[in-house]
Amino acid sequence: MKQFWVEGLVQPRGRGKKAAPVEPFSRAYWAETPAEALQGAEADLNGGAWVDGPRVSLTSEAERMRSLGAPELPGMPAPKKPTRKK
């Protein structure tokens, strides 16, 4: 089994006449295929709907951005760059 990350924007089921605000969705699922992970994520939506469709990958968006050296959020340490020895 592999660990798949399912990420995207979700419009939760609204209560009454007002629409619920869009929320980020990011969870890891153990599955054999990406389709199986997506089925697990759709079961966790509790009646919500994807805004643009989910992204299924083997690494999370946060891990991908860290590997690219993107700036971190305030309060979080930046990745340490290796120093060259002379």
What is the beta-strand fraction? Answer: 25-35%
Mean pLDDT across the residues is 84
The total count of helices amounts to: 2
The span between the termini is 45 Å
The computed structural class is alpha+beta
**Net shape:** flat
Q: Could you list the spans in which at least 5 consecutive residues all have pLDDT below 50?
A: none
**Strand element count:** 4
Give me the secondary-structure topology:
Blueprint: E1 2-11, E2 23-31, H1 34-44, E3 49-50, E4 55-57, H2 61-68
Antiparallel strand pairs: 1-2, 1-3, 1-4
Q: What do these coordinates show?
A:
- This protein is of the alpha+beta class.
- The chain is built from two helices and four strands.
- Strands 1, 2, 3 and 4 form a four-stranded antiparallel sheet that branches.
Relevant terms:
single chain; 4-stranded antiparallel beta sheet; 28% strand; 2 helices; 86 residues; flat; 4 strands; 22% helix; alpha+beta
